[in-house]
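Is 6-O-phosphono-beta-D-glucopyranose placement plausible here? Inputs below.
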Amino acid sequence: MNRKFLWGGATASYQCEGAWNEDGKGESMWDYYLHNVNTEAPRGDTACDFYHHYEEDIRMMAEGGQNAFRLSISWPRIFPENMNEINQKGIDFYNLVFTCCREHNIEPFVTLYHWDLPQYLQEKGGWLNEETCYDFAKYARTCFEAFGDKVKLWTTLNEPYYSNQNMYLAGNYPPFEQNEQHFAMAVYHQLLASALATIEFRKFNNIGEIGCVCDTHPVYPLTDSPEDKEAAARADDWFNWIFLDALLKGTFPTTFTDSVKHRIDYSFAKKEHEAIFLAGKQDFTGINYYSGASIRAYHGGETFVAHNNSGKKTEKKDDSDYIVRQRIKDSFESVENPALSNEYTAWDFQIFPKGIYDQCMRIAERYGKDVPIYIAENGIGVYEKLENGTVEDDNRIYFLQRHIDWLLKAKEEGANVSGFFNWSSMDLYSWMNTLEKRYGFVYVDYNTMKRYPKKSYYWFKDFVADFNRKNNN
Ligand code: BG6
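Reply from A.M.:
I modeled the complex. Tokens:
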């Protein structure tokens, strides 16, 4: 494939489209949950209304010097009521979007599943049901057939670790469970679904490349003690290698299965799946990088994961005060480590730009320098106000500049870094953090849906133009 370095922004269907029940779209598990369970929480019914603003949004990307756009397809827009009937209006919408991208020389980088599972599948067990994997492969094939002439870069899933952690360990995403067995099962089934979809993709000739977007973390032992180093190696399997090995090598690290088999029943991993994983190996990897993980040994207690999405900084006196607390039975715990960095976002995510370099180099070392790496998300959530028609988001510029500098260093040193997407293209809905948490290059006034480029939009435009000039991109 002729590989230009891709520069753009990223979005996800539920977080940007809105039009939650228009043109035949069915209900996703997030629609169901926010309409029926957590009815007080802000929802993505309208989000930033990309459904009705896609032309303007894509035009602004092109005018901002971007050459790529990461977005996801909403599964319940394509198969609204069941897996037998296709909604032609859903197909038509994405055809318009991808045509618009091509007209503006924007490369669409398309994710098939960014968490909006059809509710009718969730009611049958969702990712705990092996059938969902085969349904996913069917949905993927439908998309390859419908959009394969316009889309050349596909990814199967978004963040199979983080989403399942929140669904099945922290219990802050639907279906709100704290059940390690279910967590392991859902992860495994998502990876199986990804392999099945990749096998479908291979049946088409020459339609592009396929990967998966993972939220991997560079892992650092808290101390040099052998105990912490061993714990960090277990955390590496848990956060990174079970995903990337399955996707890029078609196998699972035995160090992982050996260390958890006394407490997780792996009977869902059937012998006949082994050939599927091997045949479903992928072409590239997508990485979402937000922060690193400091790890120390943890023995004795139970598995416990907590998430704090309040957006309020605290004294960090107990577990629920931390943005994320992970303790994995007989294995490791993630801890604060000011030695890595003492800088935090308003939501208390540790800011650690060098981690993006470390992670690319580690991936290149483990899977070879040929494997293309796309940074599918990196960015900072900020409370922002529109003033005089813009936002002076110098903190975003400072954040992105440092991450991109480290990323380009990894590229120079031989990692096959092939693209970078800021989360997000424009402001959009944040799963647990309301519309107040803004990530975009473009400010969205949610009352009028008017778009306003921020200072970072112009900074990125200049930065990309300079990169393209120097690198003949
Ligand atoms: C990633 C997701 O985990 O981080 C996005 O892929 C998400 O969907 C982004 O929005 C930022 O997270 P949050 O919770 O701040 O919106």
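Short version: The first helix runs from residue 13 to 16.
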